[in-house]
Amino acid sequence: MTVATSAFTRERFERMEEERLAVYASRSARATRSRGPLPAEEEDFRTQYVRDRDRIIHSRAFRRLKHKTQVFIPFEGDHFRTRLTHTIEVSQIARSVARELGLNEDLTEAIALGHDLGHTPFGHSGENVLDDLLQKGHPEAGRFKHNYQSVRVVDRLERRYEEPGLNLTDDVREGLLKHTGWRRDFPFPLDFVEGLRFESGGTLEAQVVNWCDEIAQQTHDLEDGIELAGEDAIEALAVSRVARAVRGGGSDPAVRRASLIRGMIATLTTDLVEASRSRIDRWIDAGGISTPAEFFGRRERLPGDLVGFSEDGKRLYAELREFVYRHIIHSFPVSRHDGRARRVIAGLYHAYSENPRLLPDSVLEVLHQDLGVRFLREVPLDEVKPEVERSYRPQPGFYRSIADHIAGMTDSYCIAEYRELVTE
Question: With left for phi above 0 and alpha for psi between -120 and 50, is residue 197 left, alpha or beta?
């Protein structure tokens, strides 16, 4: 019997969620958008979380991830990972874990695909440099952290619709914020805090993305590092408990490397699923929760550590992380890259701060609209410096906009700007 495709409406997909998801899973029918509903599209069969996922995929910030560094500079080799490949890998691992736990895969995928939208060029090195520049030079403008910046991107900086931002559901926005360390009093200018639920540990889907991000990051940074370092790194791993804990073999180095990474991912994700399921079940049983409605009523008090490794899994993960930092993150090639990132980003930040006319028209227009300052392209040259001193420099938003602009750059654009504006 053939089922008419018209039968697969949004309402039917929502009913399917009710039938197949665990009681502790998020439901798209309950999703809220604190900034208001999206325009009504009667023919749209997508659930709320699927619409969020699609908005993220079609954003400019998502496309730019292709040219942003994970650990190694992408153009040093054809197979090293970028922020985009890392994001896709996190999404795959997270969806698999969410499926095993009976969670909402669509919400998990949307959070995973958007979790690094706020990342700077040059990976965590770029993030640390921008944070240092703001803290030490202009603390009134707030600090920088990529998960907060991801929320700022989807709430404010993306410009695809009549209103600023992407207007995502609160569950996705909260997941972007809480996929890594966060606290309510972190000095970052979030324009719109409604719906972020700072009192809650985050949805279980967000907690899954948090740990799958860690699994993907450590195992894949290790794989890229081994590819760069060659056989020596594999031999170093051979004496590590991490390598002995998984089954990886073969005489060919490439096969051994791939087998090792697969084994690590499988071992860590299996531990994550089993340990998390046990903790979630205990919490559900202790609360006497038997229906999705009962869970939803207590979601504000959801602990932030229900998803996580067992004690053995924690030890295994800690050893892997320590190995990656010792042999990869602090290696000579990565240290050189980090020094270059600091020099380039700091150079651009100071250049833009000293002479805002070096900023593109789009940024100057944002400053004009948001800060009420004159549009510098229309200011006579002899009045530019007084205008900057009088109207631009006293405002924290000026320096925050510079940080926004640099954070949105790709590695290659950032280097090209530095060469043109600073070194020439």
Answer: left
Q: 32-69 b/e with 16+ CB inside 10 Å = b?
A: ebebeebeeeeeeeebbbbbbbebbeebebbebbebbb
The span from the first CA to the last CA of the chain, in angstroms, equals 71
Pick from 260, 362, 327, 340: nearest CA to 69: 340
Distance CA 292, CA 200 (A): 17
Beta bridge partners of 69: 82
pLDDT tens digits for range 101-151:
999 999 999 999 999 999 999 988 999 999 999 999 999 999 999 999 999
Helix 411-418 / helix 332-354 crossing angle, nearest 10 deg: 60
Question: Is residue 140 within 8 Å of 48, Cβ to Cβ?
Answer: no
Question: CA–CA separation, 257 vs 255, rounded Å?
Answer: 5
Exposure of 86 by Cβ count < 10 A (0-12 exposed, 13-18 middle, 19+ buried)? buried
Question: Across the chain, which distance is largest between two alpha carbons, in Å?
Answer: 78
Q: HSE (CB half, 13 Å, CA atoms) of 234? A: 19
Nearest to 164 by CA among 175, 151, 177: 151
pTM: 0.92
Closest by CA position to 277, among listed 4, 25, 16? 25
Q: Are 306 and 280 in contact (CB under 8 A)?
A: yes
DSSP 8-class letter at 137: H
Q: 194-231, pLDDT tens digit by residue? A: 999 988 889 999 999 999 999 999 888 787 777 666 65
Q: How far apart are CA 150 and CA 294, in angstroms?
A: 31
- If DSSP codes are grouped into helix, strand and coil, which group holds residue 82? strand
Gap between the Cα atoms of 81 and 87, Å rounded: 10
**pLDDT tens digits, 294-314:** 999 998 889 999 999 999 999
Cα–Cα distance for residue pair 388/393, rounded to 1 Å: 6
Strand partners, 82: 69
Q: How many CB atoms lie within 10 A of CB 305?
A: 9
Cβ-proximal residues to 379 (8 Å cutoff; 6+ apart), any chain: 387
